[in-house]
Design brief:
The complex is a heterodimer.
Chain A (H helix, E strand, L loop, with lengths): L6 H48 L2 E3 L7 E3 L15 E6 L3 E5 L15 E7 L2 E12 L13 E9 L1 H48 L12 H5 L4 H47 L5 H35 L8 E4 H18 L3 E6 L4 E4 L1 H17 L6 E8 L5 E6 L34 H11 L3 E6 L5 E7 L6
Chain B lengths: L1 E5 L3 H15 L2 E5 L2 H10 L4 E5 L7 H10 L6 E5 L4 H9 L4 E4 L4 H15 L6 E4 L2 E4 L4 E4 L2 E3 L3 H12 L7 H8 L9 H15 L7 E4 L3 E4 L2
Parallel strand pairs in B: 1-2, 1-3, 3-4, 4-5
Antiparallel strand pairs in B: 6-7, 7-8, 8-9, 10-11
Helix pairs in contact in B: 2-3, 6-8
The chains are: A alpha+beta, B alpha/beta.
């Protein structure tokens, strides 16, 4: 089964994911920054407290220059549960003093000033070591060299950690609330944004074979993203309607063309039976009926031919294709049409310049030429000339031109001459004898070979039909 | 009765015309295109028009519209190859009285034509009764007081026309117009011959005269 994909779902997911990423980034940056600020504040405090410890180191009253630590003035720790610890070393005698809670076994490496974190009894401490601190106490008339001190001072990081956690929780909760609000807003906005699409779908559902009009909702028309869709819907509907109407017209025309000879046949036979007739009358009636049947048969043949040609043009049928000479098929078609031409005293003049080779079924091409010739002969004046010219140039298409010197075709009818059942003036008169299918068949066949067929009025007088077949095609 | 057929398929028109002449004794004119149809419909009076839809020059629909615009009351029966609802509705709304789709049955065409003529003249029944005279338009028989009267084809046609309009004065010209087709030479004195023949046959053995002469105007068929 196909998983259905929702634009709304995707958009909301995108919004929520990007918002969540943003919130996570904010949380990380906030926590990181807060921790840095707090630690640097703590550092400053640690240094100040280390200095205050240094201030408690005093010289003895004698002039020996020895020092002692006056812990009576030691300030109390900020956090009584996890008190600070410290140690002071003198230059001369090493360790001077150590706070009572100095971790057992903690060795302080020698070296320059530095600070580090240290975990002892599950509590993390921040430790600072500051060297070369001068003893602040001064004696008057002091003759000995003043001593330098090294101080190590540590304070717990618990409070810093707690504050950082509190800031993190606050940022996370605020982000979550914002995320929720964004989700609702996105849901609303997207739902509103997709509304034109729903309206468009509702209108599109109203289109049917009986109602081709698509009423575009104004908001769908105004939405930039929907414009390509609405445009292609409109053009698609127009195309569909056109072919639908054409199909319906064809059906109507075919029905008329088929029903008329049947009506004639039926009425002839019924009228024969109406009352007793002489054998002569019966003979004439049967003769007439046979003629009507013949006409019906011919019409059916033409319609089948058209159907086959069109089917083939749509690639439904494949047939025997061989390399043939277009000029030769033209000559044969002229031969086949000769008796019709002679009955109308029309001459056919064929101009050729050698072989023009083309891959096709010769029957198809002959049928095309025959139809075009028949048309030209029919619309030629009595005793006129029909001119046929075959040219095949290297690289270009083969061009076959049929020209008569009849009355020509009114300009407004030219685009319709290849339509099925179209017959000159709307008279549909049977005087010219055709069914109005010949040119439609010719067009379908020519297009099946990738060619084109056009009708125009000849510069002098009459009609010119031009067929172009692609010689270098891959047919 | 006189019928106009407008049909471009000559063989079909010919078959219909022959059937109408032979089986109903109607005078029939045939037009092969819309223009000719309009010319005939405009310059003659027909009792019914049979109209094909697809016609050269002017199509059936246009001709129908024109006939109705000209105020002609003649019933029109349309012959069409299309039997979709929309086209039938459009036809009837344009003023057609009835339609038949091709290929049709000649018998049905004949019956519908007769029915249209009857209704066009305000006669609902196919058996026309004037006093003790009975005229059956289906099998074309005439009876007076139960006695069958044999008439010639032309006498029957005159009587049938008069019987469709009982009590109305019908002029000789009107009779000529409705009994002969376009190609016939029209002489008004032949009407007098048929009328006198009719009178002789109808009034034989009856003291009640049915066909009355209105001097200078025409004839009335009434009790």
């Amino acid at each position: 089964m196909l998983r259905s994909k929702s634009i709304k779902g995707r958009l909301i997911a995108t919004v929520v994911v990007s918002q969540a990423l943003l919130a996570a980034g904010l949380l990380f940056a906030g926590v990181f920054y807060t921790r840095r600020r707090l630690v640097s504040t703590l550092d400053a405090g640690l240094q100040a407290r280390a200095m205050s410890v240094a201030a408690l180191v005093r010289y003895t009253e004698d002039a020996s220059g020895n020092v002692y630590f006056d812990d009576s003035l030691m300030p109390r720790s900020l956090d009584p549960d996890h008190p600070d610890f410290f140690a002071v070393w003198t230059e001369r005698s090493g360790l001077l003093t150590r706070s009572s809670n100095w971790p057992a076994g903690l060795e302080i490496p020698a070296g320059p000033d530095l600070h580090w974190d240290l975990t002892w009894a599950h509590v993390t401490y921040r430790v600072w070591r500051i060297s070369h601190v001068p003893v602040l106490d001064r004696e008057e008339g002091q003759s000995f060299r003043p001593q330098d001190l090294t101080i190590v001072y540590a304070a717990p990081l618990i409070q810093v950690h707690e504050q950082v956690r509190a800031a993190g929780v606050f940022i996370a909760l605020a982000s979550l609330a914002l995320l929720g609000a964004t989700f609702l807003l996105a849901l609303y906005g997207i739902r509103r944004g997709l509304l034109p699409l729903q309206r468009l779908a509702k209108q599109a559902a109203l289109v049917s074979a009986h109602n081709w009009e698509l009423r575009l909702p104004t908001d769908a028309e105004e939405t930039t993203e929907l414009r390509p869709l609405t445009q292609s819907m409109i053009t698609m509907l127009a195309r569909l309607e056109r072919s639908f109407v054409q199909q319906r017209e064809f059906l109507g025309n075919a029905a008329h063309e088929l029903k008329t000879p049947v009506a004639v046949l039926k009425s002839t036979l019924q009228s024969l039976l109406h009352r007793p007739r002489s054998s002569e009358e019966y003979r004439a009636g049967v003769q007439e009926s046979l003629e009507d049947l013949g006409r019906l048969e011919r019409l059916l043949q033409w319609m089948l031919r058209l159907a086959r040609a069109e089917q083939w043009a749509h690639g439904a049928l494949r047939r025997d294709i061989e390399l043939i000479d277009i000029t030769e098929t033209c000559e044969e078609a002229v031969e086949r049409i000769r008796s019709l031409a002679q009955s109308r005293h029309t001459r056919i003049h064929l101009a050729t310049n050698g072989k023009v080779l083309f891959r096709a079924d010769p029957e198809d091409l002959q049928l095309v030429w025959q139809n075009l010739l028949e048309n030209a002969v029919r619309y030629s004046p009595e005793g006129g000339v029909v001119e046929v010219a075959v040219t095949g140039t290297d690289g270009g298409p083969a061009r076959i031109i049929f020209e008569d010197h009849g009355v020509g075709i009114p300009a407004d009818e030219l685009p319709h001459v290849f339509e099925r059942f179209y017959r000159g003036d709307p008279s549909r008169t049977r005087a010219t004898g055709g069914f109005g299918l010949g040119l439609a068949i010719a067009k379908a066949l020519v297009e099946a070979y990738g060619g084109t067929i056009t009708a125009e009025n000849a510069p002098s007088q009459g009609t010119r039909m031009t067929v172009e077949l692609p010689l270098n095609g891959s047919n | 009765m006189r019928v106009l057929i407008v049909e471009d398929e000559p063989r079909l028109a010919e078959n219909i015309a022959r059937s109408l002449r032979e089986s109903a004794g109607y005078a029939v004119d045939v037009a092969a295109d819309g223009q000719e149809g309009w010319f005939l419909a405009e310059s003659n009076t027909y009792d019914v028009v049979l109209l094909d839809l697809m016609l050269p020059q002017m199509d059936g629909m246009q001709l129908l519209t024109r006939i109705r615009q000209a105020g002609q009351l003649t019933p029109v029966l349309v012959l069409t190859a299309r039997d979709e609802k929309e086209s039938v509705v459009a036809l009837l709304n344009a003023g057609a009285d009835d339609y038949l789709t091709k290929p049709f049955d000649l018998g049905e065409l004949l019956a519908r034509t007769k029915a249209l003529i009857r209704r066009g003249k305000g006669q609902p029944s196919p058996v026309l009764v004037i006093g003790d005279l009975q005229l059956n338009t289906v099998n074309r028989t005439v009876q007076r007081s139960g006695r069958t009267i044999m008439l010639t084809a032309m006498e029957y046609r005159v009587l049938e026309y008069l019987a469709h309009r009982p009590g109305a004065v019908v002029s000789k010209t009107e009779l000529l117009e409705h009994l002969y087709d376009y190609n016939w030479e029209k002489f008004s004195n032949v009407i007098e011959v048929y009328i006198s023949g009719l009178r002789r046959k109808l009034d034989n053995g009856s003291d009640q005269q049915l066909i009355h002469t209105v001097r200078g105007q025409g004839y009335i068929l009434q009790d």
